[in-house]
Amino acid sequence: MASFRVLCSLALLLLTIPASRAVLDSHYYDQTCPQAEAIISQTVRNASIYDPKVPARLLRMFFHDCFIRGCDASILLDTTPGNQAEKDGPPNVSVRSFYVIDDAKAKLEMACPQMVSCADVIAIAARDVVAMSGGPSWNVLKGRKDGTVSKASDTINLPAPSFNVSQLIQSFAKRGLGVKDLVALSGGHTLGFSHCSSFQKRLRNFSSMHDIDPTMNLQLADALRKICPKGNTNPSAGTFLDSTSSIFDNEYFRQLTQGKGVFGSDQVLFIDDRTKSIVEAFAKDQSLFFGEFAASMVKLGNVGVIEKGEVRLKCHSAN
To answer: Chain centroid to CA 289: how far?
Structure first.
């Protein structure tokens, strides 16, 4: 048993993303590419008008990038012979809208060649989709470099929709993020959509005692059972994670207080004493949530930032 605990401790240590030693600066491109943010913002806005799913997808892209190897744009790299990349790992197969980042990067290369990293493009785009959806804005710290390593096998370290609060706290702590960051960043699900595969275990044969997850609102469970019938084979079937899916607001937290969290990892935030009071505070005060979300996004954007990397010429491949 002792040797097993040692092995588990070593595994956890290896999965921890080191704190960034790179110094980021909100004015990083003021001299070298002053139009960088305007180019990215306009590209993101145009894409969002064309496809309303873009905001949720780009926000999720930022989370999934930073949670693996740190914010180094490794999620953008394509699979190559002999190496399956992050974007093709099971948790990321539904991440979309990579073309938006590619479009922004192509325009940046024309305006200021070899200056703006793909990692910074993702971070700025994530801020912009939140702001344009009615949420808060913040000064994005910039100066990240792009990584050259991307492995699908690493995506197993992403928080799962079935995680309990202890598992979530542990996962966030490995990235230097606290309990308040966990709850605030979970609020990003206000723009989210999920396929049936991520929550259907809550709807049938949940446990030996309950057919449906007892923490789920019964009306919601009934509606989701219709969307995701037994034996469902439609890979596109699913639901939005709150009732105002195109608006960044605190509706997600209000729904948690009613048992209407779609993911088990969402609803447990209102069940566990370590997180319940924060959920309640955000449900009552949208301004409080906005402030904490912006602060947590800045912290997340500093996870695992590398000092020595490259500025990719094309985001989907290393130079």
So the answer is: 17
Map residue 193 onto helix, strand or coil.
strand
The burial class, CB within 10 Å (0-12 / 13-18 / 19+), for 66 is buried
Give the pair of three-digit tokens for residue 296: 């947590």
- Residues 272-290 pLDDT 10s: 999 999 999 999 999 999 9
Q: Please answer whether residues 126 and 58 qualify as being in contact, where contact means their C-beta atoms are separated by less than 8 angstroms.
A: yes
Q: Which residues are annotated as a binding site for Ca(2+)?
A: 65, 70, 72, 74, 86, 190, 242, 249
Alpha-carbon separation of residue 175 from 67, 80, 285, 304 (angstroms): 7, 28, 27, 8
**pLDDT one-digit tens code per residue, 50-63:** 999 999 999 999 99
Burial class (CB in 10 A: 0-12, 13-18, 19+), 285: middle
Annotated binding-site positions:
65, 70, 72, 74, 86, 159, 189-190, 242, 249
Domain ranges of the chain: 23-158, 165-297
Q: In the predicted model, is pLDDT for residue 14 greater than 50?
A: no
For residue 240 the two structure tokens come to 């939005």
Position 12 scores a pLDDT of: 42
Tell me the C-alpha to C-alpha distance, in Å, between residue 140 and each of 13, 29, 97, 288. 29, 11, 21, 19
70: left (phi over 0), alpha (psi -120 to 50) or beta: left
For the chain, helix, strand, coil in percent to 5 are 50, 5, 45
pTM above 0.85, yes or no: yes
- Binding site feature residues for substrate: 159
Q: Give φ, ψ of 239 to 5 degrees.
A: -150, 160
Q: Which residues are catalytic?
A: 64
In the 8-state DSSP scheme, what is residue 239? E
CATH number, domain 23-158: 1.10.520.10
| CATH C-level class of 165-297 | mainly alpha
